[in-house]
């Protein structure tokens, strides 16, 4: 049997990703249970959702001149 040192193991703090995932799960559960009630938690859910889904939005159209100008300088 290994000797006991008497020191308790200190738990490590939760990682940033774990905390964000927990908060996202909380917000999803809140909106699922309460519906879209308009409280501050629902508003947080909508802000977080819009940021997370922003990458899937349509790209903004750009003028041809805006694109062609940096390309001409690079060549």
How would you classify the quaternary structure?
A: single chain
Overall pLDDT: 80
Biggest sheet features: none
Shape field:
flat
Radius of gyration: 24 Å
Strand and helix order: HHH
Q: How many distinct helices?
A: 3
Strand tally is 0
- Terminal Cα span: 72 Å
Which percent range fits the helix content?
55-70%
β-strand amount: under 5%
Low-confidence sequence ranges:
none
Structural class: mainly alpha
Description:
With about 80 residues, the protein is mainly α. The protein has a domain at about 25-55. It is about 60% helix and about 0% strand. It has 3 helices and no strands.
Feature tags:
single chain; 75 residues; 59% helix; mainly alpha; 3 helices; flat
List the helices and strands and how they pair.
Elements: H1 16-34, H2 40-53, H3 64-74
Helix pairs in contact: 1-2
Provide a brief overview of the structure.
The chain has 75 residues and is an all-alpha fold. It has helices at residues 16-34, 40-53, 64-74.
